Amino acid sequence: MADAVVQPAKQRYALITGANKGIGFEICRKLASQGMVVILAARDERRGIEARERLKEFDNVVLHQLDVADPASVAAVFKFIKSKFGRLDILVNNAGNRGVDVDGDVSLLEEYIAADCAFLVAGGQAEPFHPKAEGKIVETLKGAEECIETNYYGAKRVIKALIPLLQLSDSPRIVNVSSTLGCIVLQPNEWAKGVLSSKEGLSEERVDEVVQEFLNDLKENKVKEKQWPPHLAAYKVSKAALNAYTWVAAQRHPRFLINAVCPGFARTDITYNHGPLSEAEAAEAPVKMALLPDGGPSGSFFHRSEALSL
Known about the structure:
There is one protein chain. The chain is of the alpha/beta class. The chain is 44% helix and 13% strand. The strands form two sheets. A seven-stranded parallel sheet has the order 3-2-1-4-7-8-9, sandwiched between helices. A two-stranded antiparallel ribbon has the order 5-6. Helix 2 (45-54) links the parallel strand 2 and strand 3 (61-65). Helix 1 (22-32) packs across helix 9, helix 3 packs parallel to helix 5 and helix 5 (141-166) packs antiparallel against helix 7 (204-219). It is globular and about 55 Å long. The two termini are 34 Å apart.
């Protein structure tokens, strides 16, 4: 249970995955500054220790190793929270994997992302895209599988494991850090688009079916033939699936507020440190969603600007 110095009825407990760096680290800082106990979860324990040291001004930050792709690691963090704090109030699924590498000028990735965003703004109308940076986006089966495992299955694994602890909270919140690249408009596969965008009949099993179909087509070199995204495919599918699962989870747990949010295009390891936003600026939107008052939205996907305007 909680230490005697805190008041269990008032103290809030938050777990942030992938929190040893980047946006996750800044989410920890912002939530800790508001007085809640923050569990800084890091896959690499050494890097987690270094991150905890950078937050040494806060005595309410606790480190725990967590690999969202490892069921045993997820079970261990559940046992830790249950024994030490008794419940969980906020879960932020921030751990992420871009699923690609860049061979050549890394600013190429920023150009592709900018082109996708322009496509969205234009309502799905494509302009001819000719990147200026020299190089190519490298997407491998191994990279795609790791991306899907972290961004979708990992987040889902953590949610399912920690639901019993969140159910003990008076105001449970789950925030899935997602991406605008997961928007349905960027899914050219009409079958996948139809499944993930239809609320009627949408289920966890249907979302899993889309993800598995993508992986099967990738293994059989049918990504182009089956009209999956022409670039950043695994990342886009993983985030689209996460957005859909967010809605499914919200229907299962109507007392929770469960939302997905794009923090914006920030300078992190995932983006090769390109982007207009700092890590601290990008953390603002997930923190806002984590602190939504009772009666707030649930089951939705928000872009950064939409989240901050709530």
